[in-house]
Amino acid sequence: MAEGTKLEIVSPERLLLSETVKSVTVPGADGYFTVLGDHAPLMTTLKAGFVTVVDTAGISHVYYVRGGFADVSPEGLTILAEEAKPIAEFDRAHIEALIAAGLTAQQAASTADDEQRLQAEIDGWRNLLLDASVGTATAH
To answer: Which of 16, 18, 42, 101 has CA 20 to 30 A from 26's CA?
Structure first.
């Protein structure tokens, strides 16, 4: 196995992180997955969630991401997120406002499909708040 994985976390606003790390746990569209050195190539969309990075000293760092892609290649892992920020900048109030807006939109939904789609979004935001409240620096 390689000594580490080259990681880049990029949002439209900035390059958030670019370094070699021991491991990275990523909120993929089909669930969380962990990347170590010599990981098989993979590309997936991201769900809103928390990226847990274990640096070469064994210290965990957590970042919030929403939307975008994760690309694992022989060169490392690149996370291209619509939104990315350190956990210290994560805003629970913003997510709670998204839940409230989703509930309002769901009540006004004109079709069952719209209602189900909105329920899935609301459930995703609620799960995100649960992840945040239980401490995302632990294993997923």
So the answer is: 101
